[in-house]
Design brief:
heterodimer, A: 267 residues, alpha/beta, eight-stranded mixed beta sheet, 8 strands, B: 226 residues, Transcription Regulator spoIIAA, Pectate Lyase C-like, 2 domains, six-stranded mixed beta sheet, 35% strand
Chain lengths: 267, 226
């Protein structure tokens, strides 16, 4: 039996889809069988970020409305040898086309065949959110170091705590700009975790490479040289139960700085 | 032997007291009350209103019956019902009264969009995050930090207080007074161990927790405060 993990945030644009794609990719890199499920019906994105858009034949709504079998709708990612699949959202209907009960049933079916099911949740707290969380066993809340994102994360955590059969959610702080955090212009990571008082499972620095990679349809996690990639891979390993210390943002910077200094011959 | 009277009228310092027997049927009682009061009103002819207390002993009266009795007595020209006193209350009312006098202890974080409400006092072991709300009929004591909204004495109790280990509320309400944090507060200013109350000029005051000892001595439950 696999595990279904929902990636949610409340606020839009904090990086749910990117996080879903990269955690899924990283888990597949660890040799797990992963299925990504996009529940943002009507505004699907995950297929684009994964670069699988033009292979979609059937979608999630076709599956729950029994127009096709699950395996017909699943899009296989050729980069992984049968380890990573995507169940895309429908684009032509809206979120009311699916009910939480149907999602629960779908998750139960998928859990038979996959180790991890990563559910990409839409923004908001309406039906789309209810659909996405109804079949999940665990939740990861993504936030950025902004007051508005943290406020919405707080609301979402409150709603997640009400869900039955769900573990306490974990936190990912995304898009960290180290210099702003240091100068106090951005919320501190400690401040955020203290405020939300849930367990921190990962921090991801703001990295232009992430945007580039997404636009090319290649999750950043596939590129082992990027800071963000390592952060996502670490999150995946923490999901698997390994205990890995958080990567200190400072030292990474110092390292780069030192390299630069060396490059310019400054002692 | 003469039948025992169901209605007895007694005069006290405060006025007349009607003792209504609690063993007879309600209909019987009403009939006798009507008779007795009619007889009475013929005897005296003053225009002054006399206030009457009604003691119904161990009889439970529904709201309708109370109104009924009040009307019956009011019809007798110069009698006005002050109150109806009964030894019995419904379970529902008893539960409500108990809840109003209880301290509800809650151990969790009140997050954005969540509302914690209690008819009596609230003791919260945890924080109130921005966007979260705590409403109490009585006092509110928060062991963590108050960053959201707190409303004490929500049924109109001006004596209610709000106390918090860290007082950084978005808004405070006591009874019907509303107070919000000034726009120009320094965000990292420490607001520790503070309380809010309404003073004699109906102004909301935020002060050190210790002032409550003088201002609200009735917070002490040990000495029979409530």
């Amino acid at each position: 039996m696999g595990e279904a993990i929902v990636i949610t945030s409340g606020k839009g644009g904090v990086g749910k889809t990117t996080t879903s794609a990269n955690i899924g990719t990283s888990l597949a890199l660890q040799g797990k069988k992963v299925c990504l499920v996009d529940t943002d019906i009507g505004l699907r994105n995950l297929d684009v970020v994964m670069g699988l858009e033009n292979r979609i034949i059937y979608d999630l709504v076709d599956v729950v409305q029994k127009r096709c079998k699950i395996h017909q709708a699943l899009v296989k990612d050729k980069r992984f040898d049968g380890l990573l699949y995507l169940l895309p959202a429908a684009q032509t209907v809206d979120k009311s086309a699916v009910t939480p009960e149907q999602m629960k049933e779908l998750m139960t079916d998928l859990k038979q065949d996959y180790d991890y099911i990563i559910i990409d949740c839409p923004a908001g707290i309406e039906q789309g959110f209810q659909n996405a969380v109804s079949g999940a066993d665990r939740a990861i809340v993504v936030t950025t170091p902004e007051v508005s994102a943290v406020r919405d994360a707080d609301r979402i955590i409150g709603l997640l705590e009400k869900q039955k059969n769900m573990e306490s959610p974990k936190l990912v702080v995304n898009r960290i700009r180290n210099h702003m955090m240091k100068s106090g212009d951005m919320l501190d990571i400690d401040e955020i975790t203290q405020h939300l008082s849930i367990e921190l499972i990962g921090i991801v620095a703001d990295d232009e490479e992430v945007i580039k990679a997404s636009n090319h349809g290649e999750p950043i996690a596939l590129n082992p040289n990027s800071k963000a990639s390592i952060a996502y891979r670490n999150i995946a390993r923490r999901i698997l139960g390994e205990s890995i210390p958080l990567q200190p943002l400072d030292e990474v910077d110092k390292g780069v700085f030192k390299k630069l200094k060396k490059f310019f011959g400054v002692r | 032997m003469k039948k025992r009277q169901n209605v007895t009228i007694k005069g006290t310092k405060e006025g007349l007291v009607l003792h209504l027997d609690d063993t007879c049927s309600y209909e019987e009682l009403k009939r006798e009350l009507d008779q007795k009061l009619s007889a009475n009103s013929r005897a005296q002819d003053e225009r002054n209103l006399i206030s009457v207390k009604v003691d119904v002993g161990n009889r439970y009266l529904s709201e309708e019956q109370r109104e009924d009795l009040k009307n019956l007595i009011r019809q007798k020209k110069n009698l006005v019902v002050d109150n109806i006193d009964s030894n019995v209350i419904t379970k529902e009312e008893a539960h409500r009264k108990k809840a109003e006098n209880e301290v509800m202890t809650v151990s969790r974080i009140i997050r954005s969009g969540q509302v914690l409400k209690a008819p009596g006092d609230i003791l919260l072991i945890g924080d109130v995050n921005p966007g979260g709300t705590v409403i109490a009929g009585g006092n509110i004591f928060i062991m963590g930090s108050l960053k959201g909204m707190a409303h004490a004495g929500c049924y109109g109790n001006d004596d209610a207080v709000i106390a918090a280990s860290s007082m950084k509320p978005s808004q405070l309400r006591i009874s019907d007074s509303i107070n919000r944090t000034p726009d120009s507060t320094i965000s990292n200013e420490k607001r520790e161990m503070e309380c809010a109350y309404i003073d004699d000029d109906r102004q909301m005051i935020i002060d050190r927790l210790q002032v409550l000892i003088q201002i609200r001595p009735n917070l002490n439950r040990l000495e029979g405060g409530h």
